């Protein structure tokens, strides 16, 4: 994105540079001196860093870069609030609204924002990104904003993001901070099963979302990018709560195993069907869209296992990919399914979703519907929203359509195919 400036005395903003370095775990006392190279100093210290000391270490090394104050904020599971990561030597901050604060705008727009702070200092808000996955923001209070300082702080934030991801693998601190209320056991299992919510390269953008964040049961998604091939799964396990979550977990495990064995889509579906049929009794099944995209050609193939067909938003219009023979849900199939196919165009946005999206019903009985879904995605793109921000806002709209009472699990994955030569990634 190009540099932007808001009028008057408001914030200045620009897009962040690429993310930086990474490793795991050491801690420096908040009052300890920092070497002339704070980034290398932090890299040295992190090898014995306990997760609860991360915020203090970041604040200390931020001072070495010229920041009076450094505060890390992580976004909650619903992506409504930014929660400050507290620690020794870290200034006290309150939670921030994603939709109603300067830090929230930096998160939403993936832009670096600056504004006057206090005592002739400036606040610098930098998106906290793991690749293009939005983790939160980092607030810096600095005496003066210069291009050289911004460059250093952007690299610093890239390192912070890597530390958050690595430490999150062996601590509950960040998961506890990110939850605003009690999470069900089923939702706990589903969140731990998910891949990163967003992946992007110059060839493809993949972004997913699911609700209700704290009580999701049988809805889930999965994907993998392997060279020129993207494998994608959107699944809706019958039922609610823990039984649905366990079925979904087994199905995702079978999908990962089959694709890693480099099986074709009918065999992947057959493997998932066999696991569900053999391990879950009674009328237990899951609907699914099991897809594979070839990045070099734009050829999209998928198996419809009793699931809604994908939708394509092309040049602002809703495009149905054509007739595709539906097959019984996974767990109820008796033969290998057929494969459907469509040729994507440059910039096509493909929507995979569960019925909790389009069948969301207003108090007056009106469905959210496919047309409203496609129109929302197109308008968000026209307004410059990135794929993850589009889905964050979409989930809020689906909830509002139902008067904030979600009647069914809802999950969605947005996939955009690009040739890699037309334009740079707008994330």
Describe what this molecule looks like in 3D.
The chain is 31% helix and 26% strand. The protein has helices at residues 38-45, 54-64, 102-109, 147-168, 173-178, 185-193, 241-260, 265-279, 355-358, 370-382, 387-401, and strands spanning 4-5, 12-14, 67-75, 81-84, 96-97, 112-116, 122-130, 133-142, 198-200, 204-211, 219-226, 229-237, 286-294, 299-305, 311-314, 317-319, 340-343, 349-353, 410-417. It has two domains: 4-178, Beta-Lactamase (2-Layer Sandwich), CATH 3.30.450.40; 185-417, Phosphatase 2c, domain 1 (4-Layer Sandwich), CATH 3.60.40. It is of the alpha+beta class. The longest helix is centred in the middle third of the chain and has 22 residues, at 147-168. Mean pLDDT is 86; it is low at 1-35 and 422-426. The protein has an eight-stranded antiparallel beta sheet, with helices on both faces. Strands 9-10-19-18-15-16 form a six-stranded antiparallel beta sheet. Strands 11-12-13-14-17 form a five-stranded antiparallel beta sheet, covered by helices on one side. It is globular and about 70 Å long.
